[in-house]
Amino acid sequence: MHHSLIITMLSSTTTFLLFLTIITATATTTSPSDISALKAIKSLINPNSIPSYSCLASWNFTSDPCQNPHITHFLCGLSCSEFRITQLTFDRAGYTGSLSPSISQLTQLITIDLSDNKLSGPIPISLFSLPNLQTLNLRSNLFSGPIPPSISNLKSIQTIDISHNSLTMSIPDTFHSLLALTRLDLSFNGLTGPIPSLPINIIELAIKSNSLSGDLTKLSYTITENLEVIELSNNSLTGTIPNWFFLQPSLQQVNLAYNKFTNLNIPKPVESNLIAIDLGYNNIVGNLSPNFSTYPLLSSLSLSYNKLHGPIPAEFAKVRRLFLDGNYLSGLPPQEFFTAKSMVSGSLGDNCLKMCPISSQLCVKSQKPSSICQKSQYVVGGGKAKPKS
């Protein structure tokens, strides 16, 4: 009996230890500092802007954020790895309020996506201390104030999208130190000043619809060999669009429309991946250069509403989408545009062309009155523009 009792006690002890092991394993919880940060983040969101169906409504701290399965609480809005928060992704619920500086306690964050809400106030400087952050998306909110130079502390960042906010002042010249950054979108803000030096590995750059000024300086692009897409439309950039700009080896799409450029130097390429160029709605003067047609992949070209004059080179028939309307182009349009084999679409209207066949959709928009065309000869002539009084 004594021997059997000892065996029974040992068996019970083993079972109890196993039970403790299971309990300990399942009791593993999210980092207390992460939980504290989540509480602080939710506390600065206006409760009246948190719909009952939203992610933030399910953030009830009576349960553990990273513990699975989630049945009633923490249904969405975050992701975890080894009980640390790695993704903070608000749903598009129209949250109002501000972003808590305590977000810096989520030191394992890889992704922040708070896009398409109504968060306001400055972007917390503490956010830029996150060492592992790769994606920052604050698109379509109401963030205001400057972009802090300390954004350069995000050494792992690959994508930054802070477009469609109310950011002001100049773009800090510290972006060039972000060696991992490949996509930057600062469009639709109130940013001013020149374009800063670009990160060496940038692939997509969009800063359209701001108030940028100054010339295109080579300093910004000299070490940027991977740039494929550049969107700088709707700003106040001035001067000449230089020839080196189009010779960037990886460049595919360029949009510099709605600026104040006055001159254009377009070189013949050695090799080029350019597919689309939009230089419309500037103040560019001079003749149309046939060099555009030497870009082998160029299929879309817009030079609408500039101050170009002279004839249209026949070589432009190689471009599939061609918008030359709103200039002072003269002479007969190339017959190559109107053959049965022609694939050209777009517009040649609102120029000074003669005999542009109205049967072609290229000529649907009428030409300028002859009186305006004659007057333009005194304003624009010989490849140079004389200033209007």
* Distinct helical segment count: 3
The CATH class: Alpha Beta
CATH architecture: Alpha-Beta Horseshoe
Corresponding CATH superfamily: Ribonuclease Inhibitor
**Helix percentage:** 10-25%
Per DSSP E runs of 2 or more residues, the count of β-strands stands at: 27
Give the percentage of residues in beta strands.
Answer: 15-25%
Keywords:
single chain; alpha/beta; Leucine-rich repeat, LRR (right-handed beta-alpha superhelix); 13-stranded mixed sheet; 27 strands; elongated; disordered C terminus
Can you describe what's shown?
It is built from three helices and 27 strands. By secondary structure, it is α/β, with parallel strands linked by helices. The chain has a single domain, classed as Leucine-rich repeat, LRR (right-handed beta-alpha superhelix), CATH 3.80.10. The protein starts with a helix and ends with a strand.
